[in-house]
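JOB MANIFEST
job_type = single_chain_structure
chain_count = 1
residues = 188
[input]
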Amino acid sequence: MSAPAKPGPRERLLDAAQKLTYTHGMNVGVDALLKEAGVARRSLYEHFGGKDGLIAAVLLRTTAEDEADYRRVMNAAGDHPRTRLLAIFDRLDEVVAGPDFCGCRYLAADLTLVEPGHPAHEITRAYRRAVHQILEGDLIALGHPRPAHAADQLLLLIDGTLAAGATRPGIAPGALARELAEHILAAV
């Protein structure tokens, strides 16, 4: 029986950056990333062109994971759009109450990476557009009179829940946001 193959340098860099940029922020040093990944500096530049490319690759990876989590949570809630949309806020309460919760990775990227042309910004915008579309789809199915506007409102509640979860632990921001989401959905 052979031992499982050790991930290559690219995958180790992605894993290290996903962990460290979340727990220590987007400004984590290159040396810390290389040490955590156990790779040489050359690997960073060969695979990602530098730290900015690595951050962009991590964000692409996590956005795909997070979009899938939204869909999984909503699908597990059943077929009724109202129940599916409200399930998001129940899930957010679980997330922010978790011992490893460090806030919203995407908000942190947008606030920390101040260069307007940083590749992370387009990825975070695309992620928010994708979540907006997920929300808007169920709002349309619900028959909401202003589905795009309501999706904007729900997305604002999601962002606020994640920010409050990082800055005001113990308040159950998902439950509070869920109450507000119910008012948005009551327009149907």
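[summary]
The two ends are 60 Å apart (CA to CA).
The domain at 56-185 is CATH 1.10.357.10 (Tetracycline Repressor; domain 2).
exit_status = 0
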